[in-house]
Specification:
Elements: H1 3-14, H2 19-26, H3 30-42, E1 46-47, E2 57-58, E3 64-70, E4 74-80, E5 86-93, H4 99-115, E6 123-130, H5 142-150, E7 153-156, H6 159-166, H7 173-194
Parallel strand pairs: 3-6, 6-7
Antiparallel strand pairs: 1-2, 3-4, 4-5
Helix pairs in contact: 1-3, 2-3, 4-5, 6-7
């Protein structure tokens, strides 16, 4: 993990911190912290609440992410911010277990959630966790199918990895939806950092 990713991860897991504290935690100089934080500040992913020397903090509302858990009986969706804090949670019973029905229900759920609270303009990613309880679902290319329906970039969730950054409890459907969103957040931010777009 590079310096910018390590800095971002430290702020996600431990909250706002001074450059000095981050330097000590990451084993680098305060100047290196400032260099790593610069592109993230410029792109709006970080903020300094008490400029100029205040602590660095995640700008949680910079982007939102949808997380959806698909079980054999229902969909559980969450709209989460950059810190994986849920802003909206919604459950919807599945009308059936055939893949087209599930996709219709998922598209409707995502559309309903994003139409509330002005989330649509700041949401481009969806994290998805699909139960393997339904045999017919095991070979479905969920990522491609859901992306076509929602217009969002889809990440098939690895909740354990997201829990490392966010401490999200994936043991419930609600927690798994948040973990799916968190996995999408994690991949989005790491992708931006690796591509030098932040």
């Amino acid at each position: 993990m590079g310096t910018a990713a390590a800095l971002f991860a430290a702020l996600l897991t431990e909250g706002p911190q001074s450059r000095t504290a981050l330097a000590g935690r990451l084993g680098i100089s305060a100047a290196a912290v400032t260099r790593a934080a610069g592109p993230l500040l410029d792109a709006g992913y970080l903020t300094v609440p008490a400029r100029p020397a205040g602590p660095l903090a995640i700008r949680s509302g910079r982007e939102f992410f949808v997380g959806v858990t698909v079980t054999a009986t229902e969909l559980v969706g969450a709209v989460c911010d950059l810190t994986a804090r849920p802003h909206l949670i919604e459950r919807r019973a599945l009308r059936g277990v055939r893949v087209p029905e599930v996709l219709d229900d998922l598209e409707a759920l995502a559309g309903t959630m994003l139409s509330r609270g002005g989330y649509r303009s700041r949401t481009r990613h969806l994290g998805l966790a699909v139960s393997d309880d339904v045999l017919a679902w095991r070979e479905v290319p969920w990522g491609d199918r859901v992306a076509q329906r929602t217009g969002l970039t889809v990440t098939i969730s690895e909740p354990g990895a997201a829990s490392t950054w966010f401490g999200v409890d994936g043991s419930t459907a609600h927690g798994l939806a948040c973990a799916a969103a968190a996995a999408s957040v994690q991949l989005r931010v790491l992708g931006l950092i690796r591509s030098d777009r932040v």
